[in-house]
């Protein structure tokens, strides 16, 4: 009897999804692109695919790149991708920076180098811009990474502008985070203290062909010395991404950090923390979605009125709203 249930014909949808999964796992880029679109937009089919694919993820190395707009993150990402390709590893790139030359609005000067990657089947590039996904951009990025991981990419590079908290969360959600700096950032170095330094595992001083690179290296080292000891001294690597200079050293610095994560047990700890953050973000979004029905919105309007005219306090109102969902 039970076998009958197991052998029962699947619904049209799950049959098509099963076929899509098979194609994706066989390396079909179009199948991958479709699944990523669903995952990114919060489509139910994306969730089903993710459930099926998730057990196959967990093998990829993830590296986040963050820094100010124009620091050269896209150029560095590009060069790192080539560096890993030279080792025979496959690469996935997730770009959150909307101005990134990975998008259709490619910066002309970067065209040639991007073409190199585009014609390489070992590299898959995905730009992500949707902030509407369940749990926000950070959770959506994790989902995209999970799918690329299950697809079989060895290394996944995540490029994001280190501007808002969301972006810092995204970059910090990788196993290794590279902070891309440039010479003559001046006052910006001071503001770096505000949090981004804590998530940086490797510091790159890009555009070292420009004056001031030495000063920048010293400034960063001075800043690092102010940070509490965390068992890892973030290396500062001078690079000229446009010339590919220093990229091997940068790749090796990432390797060293990865080895440190492995030997210290922080790799598992990080995995747990990322899981915890994603579950929390998704659960929070789920609760809000559940509250935001038509009656829920009406109730919120009533409660807001009560809070505004002082007949209820905000805490009691929030508890009342939650209790009725
Ligand atoms: N002089 C110099 N320019 C660079 C270097 N790396 C990147 N750039 C240039 O800086 C600009 C911004 O680069 P991009 O990678 O798009 O920066 P992003 O906004 O951080 O992703 C582009 O015009 C690059 O060609 C470098 O090492 N030296
Ligand atoms: Mg960019």
User: Structurally, how many domains make up the residues?
Assistant: 3
Q: How many helix segments? A: 15
Mean pLDDT: 85
CATH domain fold name of the largest domain: Rossmann fold
| Element pattern in H and E | HHHHEHEHEHEHEHHEHEHHHH
Weakly predicted, low-confidence segments: 1-6, 8-13, 102-112
What's the story with the biggest beta sheet?
A: 7 strands, parallel
Specify the CATH homologous superfamily of the largest domain. Answer: P-loop containing nucleotide triphosphate hydrolases
Q: Distance between termini? A: 39 Å
Provide the spatial order of strands within the biggest beta sheet: 3-2-4-1-5-6-7
Briefly, what CATH class of the largest domain? Alpha Beta
CATH architecture of the largest domain: 3-Layer(aba) Sandwich
Shape: globular
In what range is the share of β-strand residues?
5-15%
Tell me what the structure shows.
This protein folds into three domains: 8-56, no CATH class; 57-264, Rossmann fold (3-Layer(aba) Sandwich); 292-323. Helix content is 56%, strand content 10%. The protein contains 15 helices and seven strands. Strands 3-2-4-1-5-6-7 form a seven-stranded parallel beta sheet, with helices on both faces. Strand 2 (91-95), helix 6 (111-118) and strand 3 (123-127) form a beta-alpha-beta unit. The longest helix is centred in the C-terminal third of the chain and has 26 residues, at 266-291. The protein is globular. The two termini are 39 Å apart. Residues 1-6, 8-13 and 102-112 have low confidence and may be disordered. Magnesium ion binds at residues 73-74, 97, 99-100, 159.
